[in-house]
Amino acid sequence: AQKVTQAQTEISVVEKEDVTLDCVYETRDTTYYLFWYKQPPSGELVFLIRRNSFDEQNEISGRYSWNFQKSTSSFNFTITASQVVDSAVYFCALSAMNYGGSQGNLIFGKGTKLSVKP
Amino acid sequence: GAGVSQSPSNKVTEKGKDVELRCDPISGHTALYWYRQSLGQGLEFLIYFQGNSAPDKSGLPSDRFSAERTGGSVSTLTIQRTQQEDSAVYLCASSLARTGQSGGYTFGSGTRLTVV
Q: Does the beta carbon of B55 lie under 8 angstroms from any beta carbon of chain A?
């Protein structure tokens, strides 16, 4: 079965703190993609990153970084020096290429609500 | 268009009425998805259209839900005899072919449905 678990329901930090959002996934496929999306209060889902299962290199984009570890089936997301504008719900998602008939379908975690206080 | 457009942005309806939600995907995107986000919940897959292939309806929660996609572009999600548990934000997304190849979905802003 395909599953994404975001164990942290809500996190609250003070501005400039670093924060890591955890994501653990399950899949039997050897080819799959992992994603992070941001959902600000406005409601629209904003694509942040895609990582394929063959590329375990960590990635850094400005204050954002992602740590992909196949050994632990985790794809964690770290925000360095958080800002109030980072306040949002963050979703981790999985897309497995051979999942039944829903190839390309995204399986989402339940999301982590991040609140960054000034 | 430049992005995925959904209408209406908000819909309040009485229990038992039918509603239609519209999604206009990005031009050229062959894949279109409908998701539902209930309060405090993650995103629940509903239905997937890919080109001219038969849609994947495996996520539709009941036979009151249906969707169509005309001409490979605009899609309409119909909920018949709405119930209060149908209240949610309905999100549409489109992508080029398979998600993995495209780099990700582009989501619309959603339709917030409230059944009273």
A: no
